[in-house]
Amino acid sequence: MAAAAEEEGRAPTKYVLITGGVVSGLGKGVTASSVGVVLKSCGLRVTCIKIDPYLNTDAGTMSPFEHGEVFVLDDGGEVDLDLGNYERFLDVTLTRENNITTGKIYQSVIEKERKGDYLGKTVQVVPHVTDEIKQWIQSVSSVPVDGQTRPADVCVIELGGTVALRQLSFSLGKDNFCLIHVSLVPVLGVVGEQKTKPTQHSVRELRALGLTPDLLACRSAQPLIGSAKEKLSQFCHVPVENILNIHDVPNIWHVPLILRNQKAHEAIIKQLNLSRSAGPPELRDWTLMAESYDNLSTSVKIALVGKYTNLSDSYLSVVKALLHASVACSQKPSIQWVSASDLEDAAAASAPDAHAKAWETLKGSSCILIPGGFGDRGISGMILAAKYARENKVPYLGICLGMQISVIEMSRHVLGLGNADSEEFNTDTSGRVVMYMPEVSKTHMGNTMRLGCRRTFFRKPDCLTSKLYGNPPHVDERHRHRYEVNPSFVPMLENAGLQFVGCDESGNRMEIVELQDHPFYIGVQFHPEFKSRPRKPSPPFTGLILAATEHMRTLTNVSNGDAGASE
């Protein structure tokens, strides 16, 4: 690949590999994203790849409790949540190929074997599987993700395996490969001494696998002291100036600034021989964003009523979108986690304390958000939350399932259709106000939904949602759903005040609902959180925060995209 690039008269893509050790959950994803931000601020073009060791071909069928949210890309790829971090930090648009899994690799190798591509050879992990990984990485890294036509200067890879990357490092050469190892430096006991031994062992294991770190990124609660750095340098054979310390910070937007202050960019650029292409880092806007959040003094309480509230990563993109919108409105988001099951009438008898606490939290919040989800657990609680928001004029945003919940709630309590339900929860009901999409498979779960970026047209140009987006004729947002509003019930619901203001190109698939005579009650079939960025907050989320903080004049006078940007 490097030779091919030189023949085309362009510099080959360089690679920064991020590995992790000691314990999981150290923040490899944030580190990879932050390295990308710093390199991008130096004028380099950056792309990212996440390598996961599991046998699933993608993240689409994985439980949110076990793996966190499934992030959806423009091309419909269902991928690891870290790709969401990459897109948000770097403001790029990745593809499904940027998430490599062991399952994808084995599937590709087996398909090639079946076609006879290996000419009868015995197919083995080495070299066939490892070669496939190398080829995949080099192929994906050559695809532009920033709207330009030329490949990126640097590809940041977050790693979950090592063998193929050892071979990639060898084939590329030192000038094209930089390895950053993320490790933990804990403080044990009352003495408060920073312990370097776990990192020493982690580096030793990495070396045994044939990979040698060029930089260490040490995670710690407090800044690393000089003696700890010197000990790490001595025993890990890494220069002191290449030992970075990512200590705890008020918000993760500070991490790129920490790396810049420790001159991480200089070490990486020197290792990759990119001095001619890179300039000094320009992070003034990023610094302003990080510091402005720290200086915010008021907060807004947002009740997030969901099914997976015990693991906040299940709703990571929703949380980030609320953060982006709140900061744009000069607020700190105070997310109040409400388990939908605790709101249900049955919980009053089985778990009275949890039931009372859930309702107290809901009623004490300035707005209510119901995100996406699958399955019937907690649905009754969500319907009650939507009913409370409607009747008490509390700002409400329903996303995907949350929009369908608002349709069911209105059908039951306003239209009087007591049997109104979704086909997902009750296949026998005659009040099927939400139905299975006819083109979707009922036998296979993976990659069979309506996925990726789809166009939504505004049926009513003067609607509130259109104003939030800046009055365009249509918007492009990402989708992930199997069910849709039954168009047979749309006229009845509109006569009752629930207006369907957005639809797909056919005019039959409903995408956006708004409730008349309510300060802010919006449901969207798509997932606007997936395209939210720190300095480009999602318009529906911005509208929710504006409504919650009673900035109604700003909300109703939105035009030209003002609510959708915080530049």
UniProtKB/TrEMBL annotation:
<keyword id="KW-0547">Nucleotide-binding</keyword>
<dbReference type="InterPro" id="IPR027417">
    <property type="entry name" value="P-loop_NTPase"/>
</dbReference>
<dbReference type="Pfam" id="PF06418">
    <property type="entry name" value="CTP_synth_N"/>
</dbReference>
<dbReference type="InterPro" id="IPR004468">
    <property type="entry name" value="CTP_synthase"/>
</dbReference>
<dbReference type="Pfam" id="PF00117">
    <property type="entry name" value="GATase"/>
</dbReference>
<keyword id="KW-0665">Pyrimidine biosynthesis</keyword>
<protein>
    <recommendedName>
        <fullName>CTP synthase</fullName>
        <ecNumber>6.3.4.2</ecNumber>
    </recommendedName>
</protein>
<dbReference type="GO" id="GO:0044210">
    <property type="term" value="P:'de novo' CTP biosynthetic process"/>
</dbReference>
<dbReference type="InterPro" id="IPR017926">
    <property type="entry name" value="GATASE"/>
</dbReference>
<dbReference type="GO" id="GO:0003883">
    <property type="term" value="F:CTP synthase activity"/>
</dbReference>
<keyword id="KW-0315">Glutamine amidotransferase</keyword>
<feature type="domain" description="Glutamine amidotransferase">
    <location>
        <begin position="311"/>
        <end position="545"/>
    </location>
</feature>
<feature type="domain" description="CTP synthase N-terminal">
    <location>
        <begin position="14"/>
        <end position="274"/>
    </location>
</feature>
<dbReference type="InterPro" id="IPR033828">
    <property type="entry name" value="GATase1_CTP_Synthase"/>
</dbReference>
<dbReference type="GO" id="GO:0005524">
    <property type="term" value="F:ATP binding"/>
</dbReference>
<dbReference type="InterPro" id="IPR017456">
    <property type="entry name" value="CTP_synthase_N"/>
</dbReference>
<comment type="function">
    <text>Catalyzes the ATP-dependent amination of UTP to CTP with either L-glutamine or ammonia as the source of nitrogen.</text>
</comment>
<comment type="pathway">
    <text>Pyrimidine metabolism; CTP biosynthesis via de novo pathway; CTP from UDP: step 2/2.</text>
</comment>
<keyword id="KW-0067">ATP-binding</keyword>
<comment type="similarity">
    <text>Belongs to the CTP synthase family.</text>
</comment>
<dbReference type="InterPro" id="IPR029062">
    <property type="entry name" value="Class_I_gatase-like"/>
</dbReference>
<keyword id="KW-0436">Ligase</keyword>
